[in-house]
Amino acid sequence: MQDLTIEELYEEFEDLPDWDERCDYLIDLGFSLPELPAESKTEENRVHGCQSNVWLVADIKKSNPPTVEFLANSDAVIVNGLIAVIAALYSRKTPQEIISINAEEAFKKLGLERHLSPQRRNGLYSMVQRVRELAVQAEAQS
Amino acid sequence: MIPLDIEAVRGDFPILQKPLPKGLPLVYLDSGASAQKPQCVIDKEREVYENYYANAYRGVYRFGAIVDEELEGAREKVRQFIRAEHSDEIVFTSGCTMSLNLVASGWGKRNLKAGDEILINEMEHHANFVPWQQLAAQTGATCRFLPLTDDGRLEMARIGEVLSDKTKIVAVTGMSNMLGTLNPIDELAKKAHDAGAVIVVDGAQSVPHEHTDVVASGIDFLAFSGHKLYGPSGVGVLYGKRELLEQTAPILFGGHMIDRVYKDHSTWASSPAKFEAGTIQIAQAIALGAAIDYMGTLGMDKVQEHERNVLEYAYNRLQEIPGMRIYGPGVEHRGAITSFTIDGAHPEDLAQLLDRKGVFVRHGHHCTMPLHDLLGVSATVRASFGVYNSRDDVDALMDAIQFACQRLRLT
């Protein structure tokens, strides 16, 4: 997805003391998120959130061990920034690694805990759930 | 008419005196979702807990008697506020949603059968939409839809196509929570009655902003919530004509609503007790009385005039923004609500960026998905105004929108 790692993000966010700066940074991330091709934005790929659409496509690389690659897009810019954060968390990881990642913890560490909860209904939480499900499936198939 | 003293009104709401982090003033534009509370309402609720709290309609001891008296006082205030004839026509519920569900289940299931029709429309809030959909599914009745005009009003000229002697219920909102449309309730009530139907009005948005006279308007059932009327959360009202409430079955059983319980059957108390099972919202209902007193002190005429003034200013200013689309009718047919989209800006981004400037607006489908489907948008931003909003708030909204558009690289 992007080459940004979660460790780099932790460092970056340390220099962003409050939400205003973090939000601007997320907007920048959002604008630079790779575009999902229009044909991938199908109902089947839509992650059900309430207030903005999120589409997610995952690709299981049959390496050894397999890794999961995924690409996601929202129609909202700030959510796209948050997707970039999730991508940094999960991309190019093995199913085992993905299952052991605690996304809520990471979001808390970044000061974005408000944005990842079942109640936020922005599709992100569902997206994390789906990534984990895909990882479990990939694990089962390997 | 002397205009509303907006500074004095703002002074009545403690939350408006507290700056947000970074010293930003609060610009609260979400009264359509829930209104802030004046000090007198907060004080009244506190007074109940600090001075005479007890359960209602049970204790003969001193506090029980005071609570009963206060509750009945609040009920009487509600009665006067909506100009109902009898206080037993005023039922305290948990909110507008419960009130509407009570009518659909309690009256609807008893009175509707296969082949009957319910007249609704696409601007209704889900709370005045889904219960009728469910009622239709359970009884074999059908929901018919009164068409909307291009500018989001009920197309009254076509009512003959959908209203007939099959219609048993006409359910309509007094004011759309998304478009702001003010509906012709009196005319609809008359047409409903001529067809032999009852009219159920969702007053959640209209009751806090304009005079309500259930008798003069010919309203059979009126539902509204306390929290949108500057009262506490957790309490709402169902008004129903006496004879209709007699025909309405309770939907919650136990506690205060019973008359006599036997091993094999039970009988119910009469209204309003019949519909007030368990322990009701004691402090909240009492404090709702204080909210109504407060509105009475301001004067609904002045409130309406003031909000109209703010709305007109907002409606005109918002149009200055490139790519702005305001949904719904012109100001002459709407209450203090503006829902809009800006080309190229997602409502969720807008709402989050406005929040950074201390401007609180709602975004999403506002519990009106069929309406958004009709309009062909998945979400909108809604700025709704209350008695404490002023033109300054509109200016702050404009500045915040400029900021948001710049951040979203639209300017």
UniProtKB/TrEMBL annotation, chain A:
It comes from the Bacteria. Residues 11-133 form the Fe-S metabolism associated domain. PANTHER family: SUFE-LIKE PROTEIN 2, CHLOROPLASTIC, SULFUR ACCEPTOR PROTEIN CSDE. Belongs to the SufE family. This is Cysteine desufuration protein SufE.
From TrEMBL, chain B:
It catalyses: (sulfur carrier)-H + L-cysteine = (sulfur carrier)-SH + L-alanine. It comes from the Bacteria. GO terms for molecular function: cysteine desulfurase activity; pyridoxal phosphate binding. Keywords: Pyridoxal phosphate, Transferase. The keyword NAD does not apply. PROSITE patterns: AA_TRANSFER_CLASS_5. Its EC number is 2.8.1.7. Residues 27-397 form the Aminotransferase class V domain. It is an enzyme of class 2 (transferase). GO terms for biological process: cysteine metabolic process. Transmembrane segments: none annotated. Belongs to the class-V pyridoxal-phosphate-dependent aminotransferase family. Csd subfamily. PANTHER family: CYSTEINE DESULFURASE, CYSTEINE DESULFURASE 1, CHLOROPLASTIC. Catalyzes the removal of elemental sulfur and selenium atoms from L-cysteine, L-cystine, L-selenocysteine, and L-selenocystine to produce L-alanine. This is Cysteine desulfurase. It comes from Rhodopirellula bahusiensis. The lineage of its organism: Bacteria, Pseudomonadati, Planctomycetota, Planctomycetia, Pirellulales.
